[in-house]
Amino acid sequence: MSTDDAKDPVEVVAGAVVDDLGRPGLLLAARRTEPPDLAGGWELPGGKVDPGESPVDALHRELAEELGVEVVVGDLVEGPLDRGRWPLGTAYAMSVFLAQITDGVPEPLEDHDELRWLPADDLYAVAWLPADLPIVRAIEALAADCRRFRQ
Ligand SMILES: Nc1nc2c([nH]c(=O)n2[C@H]2C[C@H](O)[C@@H](COP(=O)(O)OP(=O)(O)OP(=O)(O)O)O2)c(=O)[nH]1
User: Fold this and answer.
1) What SS3 state is found at 97?
2) Ligand 1, pocket-test mutation among 33, 62, 94, most atoms within 8 A of CB
3) pTM given for the model
């Protein structure tokens, strides 16, 4: 076995950016421009966590760089890996947090060429990257729970 096989997955973080953390009705999706094999696929905005950076700090940095917004970070959308992360193939593991914009209007400044706010009843209107589909299902369940609790 080469040493590469035993490597820890690269740490990634993404935001499930919703209109209202207390009562999520809309989810922000972003269309990737790079690399060619992922371009055109829709994802949750975010990116790689820098060495020594916490996932939450990386999320604030990535959303500022990519979308030009400040956010308040909410609950972790729990995935099946350690620390509640989600697998992106075998090379990456991604933490996903709910988030709500507190400042700025999101624009596709970097890495994306289009953004869409998807209503809760139409979350699959875009071609999500394959690894994102189970995550979107978990976000859908979490958002439905939030709305139920608030009724
Ligand atoms: N950000 C993000 N990346 C995702 C998602 N789904 C998915 O498969 N990926 C993949 C694409 C990339 O291979 C990897 C994340 O890297 P990235 O390209 O977003 O990170 P970055 O902005 O720091 O990239 P870079 O400048 O270092 O290239 O995870 C997702 O929902 N959000």
Assistant:
1) strand
2) 94
3) 0.93
